[in-house]
């Protein structure tokens, strides 16, 4: 009977050892899986932050480059001539966005279909804004929102030809505003 008790103790001990070993393996496995999930989630969040900051950097570079071209760019309807800096409104936006690796089509109507819709109250730097300047209610002009209610656009007027910074909230542009898009 002593051998039988010793054998039972051995079996119980071995079973306890197996339970502990298996249990700690499950816990360790769960911890490893949790750690891998946390690491993956952190990487996704870091990539999103990097993409967001990269996008913001691109938009700031687009605005800075646009401003640096004031007085150098000439407005010419239907023209896309980067070597002479002669552009219409949409070939200008195509040009400065392209310098940051963001591809835009030529034409304000075509550009108004790219990217995603942005409500006027949610405008951010670098958003494209679309206006009607000749035919009411029809998109035929595009500019780049630069913040603070201002946008830069290539246009022609009685006193200027080329890039101009205008206030989107002025009476002239409030009635001409149609929509906005976020690209890049």
UniProtKB/TrEMBL annotation:
Keywords: Hydrolase, Protease, Signal, Thiol protease. The keyword Membrane does not apply. It holds the Pfam family NLPC_P60. It comes from the Bacteria. Residues 56-184 form the NlpC/P60 domain. One of its GO terms (molecular function) is cysteine-type peptidase activity. Residues 1-28 form the signal peptide. Belongs to the peptidase C40 family. This is NlpC/P60 family protein. It comes from Cohnella luojiensis. The lineage of its organism: Bacteria, Bacillati, Bacillota, Bacilli, Bacillales.
């Amino acid at each position: 009977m002593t051998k039988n008790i010793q054998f039972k103790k051995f079996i119980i001990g071995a079973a306890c050892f197996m339970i502990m070993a298996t249990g700690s393996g499950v816990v360790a496995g769960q911890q490893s899986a949790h750690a891998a999930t946390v690491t993956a989630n952190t990487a996704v969040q870091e990539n999103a932050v990097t993409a967001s900051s990269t996008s913001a950097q691109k938009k700031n570079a687009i605005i800075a480059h646009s401003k640096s071209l004031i007085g150098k760019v000439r407005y010419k309807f239907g023209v896309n001539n980067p070597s002479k800096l002669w552009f219409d409104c949409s070939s200008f936006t195509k040009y400065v966005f392209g310098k940051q690796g963001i591809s835009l089509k030529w034409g304000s109507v075509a550009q108004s279909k790219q990217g995603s819709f942005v409500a006027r109250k949610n405008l951010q730097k670098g958003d494209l804004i679309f206006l009607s300047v000749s035919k009411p209610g029809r998109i035929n002009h595009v500019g780049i929102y630069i913040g603070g209610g201002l946008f830069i656009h290539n246009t022609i007027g009685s006193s200027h030809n080329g890039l101009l910074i205008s206030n989107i909230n002025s009476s002239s542009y409030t009635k001409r505003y149609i929509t906005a898009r976020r690209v890049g």
